[in-house]
Amino acid sequence: MSNQQTETVMEPEADFLTEEMDAGPPGDDHPMALLLEEFDDSYVNQPQTGDIRHGVVVDKRAGELLIDIGYKSEGIVTGREVDRLEGDFKDMTIGDEVPVYVMREDRDGNLLLSISRARAESDWKRAEELLASQDMFTGSVSGFNRGGVIVKIGQVRGFVPASQLSSESQSQQLTEGEPDNRWMKLMDAELRMKVIDLDRRRNRLILSERVAIREWRREQKEKLLETLEENAVCEGVVSSLADFGAFVNLGGADGLIHLSELSWGRISHPKEVVSIGEKIKVMVLNVDRERKRIGLSLRRLLPEPWETVPDRYEVGQIVHGAVTKLVHFGAFARLQGDTIEGLIHISELTERRIAHPSEVVAEGQEIDLRIIRIDTEKRRMGLSLKQVAPEEESVEFDWEPVPLEENQAGTQNAAAGAADTPSTAGASNVAAPGQQAASQQPELSEEPEAEKVIA
Fold it and tell me: For residues 210 and 249, what is the distance between their CA atoms, to the nearest angstrom?
């Protein structure tokens, strides 16, 4: 039979079957359609290894769960998989919906499922999405070693190297003890993170707090720059120190306190006033929205020391201070427990003539001083080192005083000798003035000392 004849014979039969399938028996599905539907459903719904399905707990036994995933038979979660669930297994009840990972069929034809693998697969997908979008997330530190800390994304362990920790977190490391415990203080701490590297095949997930914090601060700075106003008072935390000032975190954005705005007194480094991690209140001096800079001040929230100087000091008062700076015309000294500095003029350092103050004092030296001048309007204070000696201080001499009886006897013998012979009198006249000068020396030496105290 030719092809044409075959087609002629088959076409009516094909049409007949098609019409019969379309029509079907009245009030019932055609057996052929039911067969095809069953075949399609079994083929499409047949689970494959690596699939993630959503199932329902239909039975819970000791160390075993039966999960219905819409297949011809229930799948089983058993053995090691149940142990990985730990507390979650106790909380599961019949009817709970759970994601499961299809592993394989065992020898008895049972479909083995894994809930922990399903969660891990879902968490890996989330990590991949975070890497692609570069969105930030918050995670808790679940472990650590000498190289960094561990932060989980669900069931997946991510590693944060020490170099990727923020400066605030790095300041928490322990410098003493075992190196493996250096990040112990960060345990259970909530960190803001970003995914920076992912290799599923090598089970590698690298996170960074430093990158996340930098971006977060950039966003916060934009918001702060829009809302901050000059002369506003804010609370912040000292984040870092530099030779020219201190940076303060105002809640995501850093502002700078210049060295001159840290204290009313003269300081050489910010560490003399503040320390990293310290909480302080600051005043906003200026906001540069174009350059994205915030100027702050600490001293303007403190009382101006010179306003209370007349109540705390007076001319003639003895104070204790430390030499802060030497110049050719004198030395500056800061009063103890204060930010006030006074000048010790070179003429007030010592009675003798000197070429430079370093001949008498040195920077950092602590000395007692007398206040000799106060000018609150010009914010100046004059100090004196040479006028410090109190009035009752005794004067030391390099000779021994002669007893009163011997002194009187010597005077009488000298007078008798002068009356007897001129030569003896001449000798006595040479010695007598010396004795007289010695007896009068204490009285003459005390007068200049008294004058200095009065001056």
Answer: 15
Residues near 295 by beta carbon (within 8 Å), at least 6 away in sequence: 255, 256, 258, 261, 284, 285, 286, 287, 288
Residue 341, domain member (yes or no): yes
CATH code where residue 323 lies: 2.40.50.140
Q: Structural domain of residue 89, as residue ranges?
A: 52-119
Q: What is the DSSP letter of 264?
A: S
Q: Is residue 279 part of a domain?
A: yes
Q: Which two tokens stand for residue 215?
A: 């971006």
Q: Is 450 helix (H, G, I), strand (E, B) or coil?
A: helix
* pLDDT tens for each residue of 139-192: 999 999 989 999 999 888 999 999 999 988 988 888 887 888 889 999 999 999
Question: How many Å apart are CA 155 and CA 142, to the nearest integer?
Answer: 11
Q: Please tell me the pTM assigned to this model.
A: 0.47
Instruction: Write the CB contacts of 289 (distance below 8 Å, at least 6 apart in sequence).
Output: 225, 226
For 261-292, write each residue's pLDDT tens digit.
998 877 889 998 999 989 999 999 998 888 88
Contacts of 182 (CB under 8 A, 6+ apart): 146, 173, 174, 175
In angstroms, the CA 57 to CA 252 distance is 46
